[in-house]
Amino acid sequence: MDIYVSSLFDKSLSKASRRIQNDLEEIRNFIRSIPDERDLYSRNSFGFKKYKKNIYGIDVGNTHSKGNDARRLICACYTYESNTMFIRYKESNSTGRYIVLVDIVKHDEQNRKALLASNGISEWDITNEEEKIIESLNNNDIKFRKVFNSFKDGTPVLTLDKFETIDKFINESGPVVLPGIAGSGKTEIIIRTIEELLEIYEGETNVLYVTRSNTLLSNVQGRFKNPKNVDFYTIKSLLVNYLDEIGKEHGSEVDSFYSFTNFCNELIHLERSTYSKQEQELIKFVQKCQYYPLYLEIYGFIFGFMNLNWDRIETSMINTDTYLNENYGYCIYGKNDRSLVYELAKKYRDYLEVNKIINTNEVSFDFSRYENRKQYQYIFIDEGQDLTEVEDFMLLSLLAPGCEKNVLFSFDREQIVTPTFFNIGRFRSKLSLTEYNDNRKYKFGYNPLTDNFRNPSSVVKLINSFNIVRTKYVQTERNEDRVMEKVRNKLAGYAGIFNGNISEIIEKFGHDPKTVIIVTDDYYRDFTKSISQENLGNYVSLRTVTGVKGCEYDNVFVANFLSSRSVLSNSRGFEKMKMDYLLLSNYYVAITRTSINLVLLEQNDSGIVKEVFEQYRKDYNKSLPVENVLDDIVVLGEYNAIEYIERADQEFDQGRYKEASYYYQYALKSNEISDDPQLKKYIDNKLKVSDVLKLEIDESTKGDMLIALNEYNLAKTYYKEAGDKIGLQIINMIENEATKDIEFMFAENKVTYERIKRMGGIVLEAFNLYLKKKTFNLKQIKDKNKVQIELINKQTRRINK
């Protein structure tokens, strides 16, 4: 039978004892080997019990008593034909029957807990729990995934409307502009579409996946195992690959608000005696301005705008006239200030060049004109709201001739984190798409995805109230298109206010593996400066919004995010609207990171904070709960090594190697590690890899050291950044077990012995084997020569006689 598990099951499994987990693996193996549920009766040791209809229970853990470790696995059995949502996942050799593992509950509370877990309801009068469970499953109120060789691997189950989107893109040809709220499944649609394309074309098509987020890229790439002809890039890695290809020198840093802040600080502290009157005027202007709106104007518009008709020809920035005379409402600053902003942009451009900081807009523009650029049949752009127009233009230029429509662009205009001046109407015009059809739907019928699979109902209610208030401050979507987010996560969760101090939260949850504490950039900078490097590990859960994009956590604290900002009251005009838009987008990203509990801490309840709380009271006829004691909101768990490792792996995949090291070290302190040498070996290796990645050395050397640790995919990344073709060739040879090819590289002196020692492992073994062969061959030649010489000597002596 095929096996599916619910998100409820996944949560319970992560907290289960080792004995229960072992029992469940045995059950999973057995279920995979049988044609239907009737065979479960043949295993009395499972304590298999049928309730009624298609609901069953299986004992796990201590199966012969009702002690503390006894659990009941609640499951439901179906035929594929009876539930069309799962039919697409039927395997060719399937019997047509499958089982859904719903939850793991305490043995002596199985009836009540099974119902509560399935429906996410805190109180319920039990009448017919089995029917309720069936109803919950049939309505797909919770997330499911199909599992195969272990509970760790699996494929998420999509709803039918998402498969409609995939079918239309593949069969009707794009382009597809796919809007969707946080947690709605946009990325999952992209993954499944790529999978189907690879199956249809049997890998004989070029596919490109691009996003700005390292986390998102890692999550998506991890779903594919060495796919043929699919390239995965962030904007940065794509541009670095181009710069390496043309041999242009560059640093590792990219244009960011951080680099702009450093530039402005250097500018205003320079010696002014030699400055002209205009330059002094520019410095005074910078001193009186907020840096962020300046950066927004320069990065998103002056550097990133493609002109009104997408016909820009200037490489590094739009021309002076276009900017000074812009009259379409795109600029933050009035015409009186624009000449100074433009001069500042020119100085910042020069600063980036001198400091070898990658100007992503300029490099993107150059790349779009590069004649030898690789081209693709399909391009997938994920979280496109965080890309500038120049970056979008560059990506579209990578579509092969005849494939100009084969682009899928996912976005959420309410989740803009990067200051890009994103405008979906302009992007649609570039793709020659009309904004709406007669049915008020997006072109090709793609309505915004509004089913929220991530956040529980308590949090979605708060999100909907927040969205109503947000429309008073910024123009988000057309009013006729705004819809309420729908709850699809039936886990019981909490959304409320903590009436305490942020220091209490940080001290209690600073390194909790299931928690993130989201604070403003300013607070994070000041806090990390105030503590020693040795103590940073105690506060590893502290994050800014950019550090959590693309992630989700059980517990999310959002601290003083709105009340500590003066932007909403101090800015003015168009500057105010743009700044408010970005701030509120950041806040939306922050509050949508949770899968269970959301706790807000706002020490100043004036302004928009008060409005959001008041709107919630108005919408739901009750106030958000307020707690004075932290333990009354979220209880700090006792975590096992696996939970620390899962969080560490998440940090590692995001490129946060220092943070990953802290969580791996917490896992090592667990008693379970001493009983599991394989787990200890895994952590030790990850710590070694993290240590390598934290080193400030060149990319090629990092790649060599990663090969020694058998981290070939990571090594590839660094070799690509370094443009190291020899390193990439060696990895390719290792993966294809082409030892002879490696030996050829030694013979051609393409690899130094220093590199060989650094790479170690397979490479060093191959080299030693090569030396042995070479020595053996030389000895054979020498012995053969000896024989030849002796024969010649004999002949010579004979002739002399």
Q: Could you list some keywords that capture this structure?
A:
801 residues, 5 domains, 7-stranded mixed β-sheet, 32 helices, 20 strands, 13% strand
Task: Describe what this molecule looks like in 3D.
Residues about 115-125, about 435-445 and about 475-480 have low confidence and may be disordered. This protein has about 800 residues and is α/β, with parallel strands linked by helices. The termini are far apart. The protein folds into five domains: about 1-155, no CATH class; about 160-250 and about 365-390 and about 400-430 and about 435-445, 3-Layer(aba) Sandwich (Rossmann fold), CATH 3.40.50.300; about 255-355, no CATH class; about 450-630, Rossmann fold (3-Layer(aba) Sandwich); about 640-765, no CATH class. The strands form four sheets. A seven-stranded mixed β-sheet has the order 2-3-4-5-1-6-7, sandwiched between helices.
Poorly predicted parts: 117-127, 435-445, 477-481
N-C termini distance: 91 Å
Strand order of the largest sheet: 2-3-4-5-1-6-7
Largest sheet: 7 strands, mixed
Summarize the structure.
The protein is of the alpha/beta class and 801 residues long. The chain has five domains: 2-156, no CATH class; 160-251 and 363-390 and 400-430 and 437-445, Rossmann fold (3-Layer(aba) Sandwich), CATH 3.40.50; 257-357, no CATH class; 451-632, Rossmann fold; 641-764, no CATH class.
